[in-house]
Amino acid sequence: MTAAQRRIHEAALKLFAEKGIGEVNVSALAEAAGVARGTIYNNLDSIESLFEKVAKELSEEMIVRVALSLPADVEPAQRLATGIRFYIRRAHDEPSWGRFLVRYGFSSEALRSMWSGQPLADLQDGLQRGAYDFEPEQATSVLALIAGGVLTAMILVQEGRKTWRDAGSDVAEMLLRAVGVESRQAQSLARDELPALVEAA
To answer: HTH tetR-type domain spans which residues (predicted)?
Structure first.
């Protein structure tokens, strides 16, 4: 991705986080990105295709960053608790990123993959290893519960009703308990030291 494309994508993320897709136009995008309208036209098929690219990039990048930030052999429940808290902390640290997820997290096909690909595989792995207690056919419903909890926690943080630490730990603990992790273990895992979220290459 060129420097201009990066600026356009970053500006688009902020604009889409605040407005509906139909409310974003080339002039607003050019102004937000600090580039000429011609640069936008040279790098853009349509506003709709730009949205899909931004959403896909956001989804893939976060999955990679979470994976890079955790040891490969980390226990399933620890992986889940830490992943949940990473999302909520990042929504605090990068408000536009968080608002984009909250606004489109369930409606965008590209963003829905954030809750289904690797996270679903991790959930199924934990179930097979005996870390969780639910029926295999309930996996997608459990994933929907996790996604809903994470997005709701982001809203609490955005509205100033909870700190990211409290929201992240509370939701991680409740979701761990929901999938069958013992209460004391869930509480401990949800309050462990949270490592840094590694940047994607």
So the answer is: 2-62
H or E stretch covering 176: helix 164-178
Domains and CATH numbers, the chain: 1-44 (1.10.10.60), 55-189 (1.10.357.10)
- Give CA separation, 90 vs 47, 97, 130, in Å: 26, 8, 30
Q: How confident is residue 59, by pLDDT bands cut at 50, 70 and 90?
A: confident
What Rg, from alpha-carbon coordinates, does the chain have? Answer: 18
Q: What is the distance between the alpha carbons of residues 29 and 93, in angstroms, rounded to a whole number?
A: 23
Residue 112 has pLDDT above 80, yes or no: no
| One-letter amino acid of 141 | S
| DSSP symbol at 115 | G
Contact 84, 195 (CB under 8 A): no
DSSP codes, 119-141:
HHHHHHHHHHTTS--S-GGGHHH
